[in-house]
Amino acid sequence: MSGAPRVRSMNVADSEMRPVLGPTGNKASSLSARKPSSKPLRKKDKSPDEFRTPEGKKASQFAAVASSSPQLLPTNGSSVLRRHEQLLHSNSSLNASCSSDASTESFHSRASTGRLIRSSSVGYRRKPVVSKPRSVVSDGSLDSPPPLGPQAKKTCAWVTPNTEPCYAAFHDEEWGVPVHDDRKLFELLVLSGALCELAWPAILSKRHTFREVFADFDPLAVSKMNEKKMGAPGSPASSLLSELKLRAIFENARQITKVIEEFGSFDKYIWSFVNHKPIISKFRYPRQVPVKSPKADVISKDLVRRGFRSVGPSVIYSFMQAAGLTNDHLISCFRFQACISAAEGKEEACATESVRDNKVDDPSERELSAAMDDLDFSEEL
């Protein structure tokens, strides 16, 4: 006999919960393990508290996984693989939610600073924004300097905002304007000769002293002055120039009086070298303005021949610029055209005066005018 028959327990619950071992391993499992859920896990509704902190988010994800997955017993290989797949799915969803939270936090932090820039991916690069210069209004004034108005005058390049006012006024009012007065010409000749020892600003600052010492540049009065007395140490003249230059001024005054006796005026003599018309240079750049010219060399030689002193080509060219014999203003300077207009007006006045002086007193015209006067008088009677 094979033995006593097996008695089957009627306690179904105990049999369902107790695993039955067989030759092939653990094929029996609990009811929850027999019927695994084929539907994917649903994400539970997220509470507002979970969105606020990453720690709360992770805790909620792990709680959802623990509650949704049953207590699996090591039954077989397929169940183990299914459990690993569920864990991987939960980890991927957790990483995605954490990245969304990080992007949300970065969005809120940037929004607080005023820069609303949402980065959708890691490889996104911001395009460089070229900022344009703007004039910002602060305290009722513009930070950027206002543009130059139409009334802004452009001068020669050697006249800058830092130039001394006396020299700027000399440039804007006298330099390049044609001069035809003998006293004024003698003054400019003396000041040009002083450039060997002083600069234009220093000379112009002492201009009133020059006029007091040299009798307002009257050639006849200067020619009669006592050279020894004027050049003595401590005299006003000695504080202006050296003794050599003072002697040259007195000698030039005597020679100018001789020129006036010969030509009638120093003006006619000096302007005859340029045919009584100023030379218009039309320079565009300061480097084009020369120190001397062939015309200045010719005038210098003639003056030396007549007995003038300290009248080299450079001194004479400076004199020509100051007296308006040559217009060396840059063409961009506002004084360029003004000096041309002044020269044209002076030429018209000289032409009218010369026609009036050269008019021939014809006797026939004089008799005709007298006859016309008699005729008018008889008609009135």
From TrEMBL:
<keyword id="KW-0862">Zinc</keyword>
<dbReference type="InterPro" id="IPR005019">
    <property type="entry name" value="Adenine_glyco"/>
</dbReference>
<protein>
    <recommendedName>
        <fullName>GMP synthase [glutamine-hydrolyzing]</fullName>
    </recommendedName>
</protein>
<feature type="compositionally biased region" description="Basic and acidic residues">
    <location>
        <begin position="46"/>
        <end position="58"/>
    </location>
</feature>
<feature type="binding site">
    <location>
        <position position="333"/>
    </location>
    <ligand>
        <name>Zn(2+)</name>
    </ligand>
</feature>
<feature type="binding site">
    <location>
        <position position="156"/>
    </location>
    <ligand>
        <name>Zn(2+)</name>
    </ligand>
</feature>
<feature type="compositionally biased region" description="Basic and acidic residues">
    <location>
        <begin position="351"/>
        <end position="368"/>
    </location>
</feature>
<feature type="compositionally biased region" description="Polar residues">
    <location>
        <begin position="66"/>
        <end position="76"/>
    </location>
</feature>
<keyword id="KW-0479">Metal-binding</keyword>
<dbReference type="InterPro" id="IPR011257">
    <property type="entry name" value="DNA_glycosylase"/>
</dbReference>
<feature type="compositionally biased region" description="Basic residues">
    <location>
        <begin position="36"/>
        <end position="45"/>
    </location>
</feature>
<feature type="region of interest" description="Disordered">
    <location>
        <begin position="126"/>
        <end position="153"/>
    </location>
</feature>
<feature type="region of interest" description="Disordered">
    <location>
        <begin position="1"/>
        <end position="76"/>
    </location>
</feature>
<feature type="region of interest" description="Disordered">
    <location>
        <begin position="351"/>
        <end position="381"/>
    </location>
</feature>
<dbReference type="Pfam" id="PF03352">
    <property type="entry name" value="Adenine_glyco"/>
</dbReference>
<feature type="binding site">
    <location>
        <position position="329"/>
    </location>
    <ligand>
        <name>Zn(2+)</name>
    </ligand>
</feature>
<feature type="binding site">
    <location>
        <position position="171"/>
    </location>
    <ligand>
        <name>Zn(2+)</name>
    </ligand>
</feature>
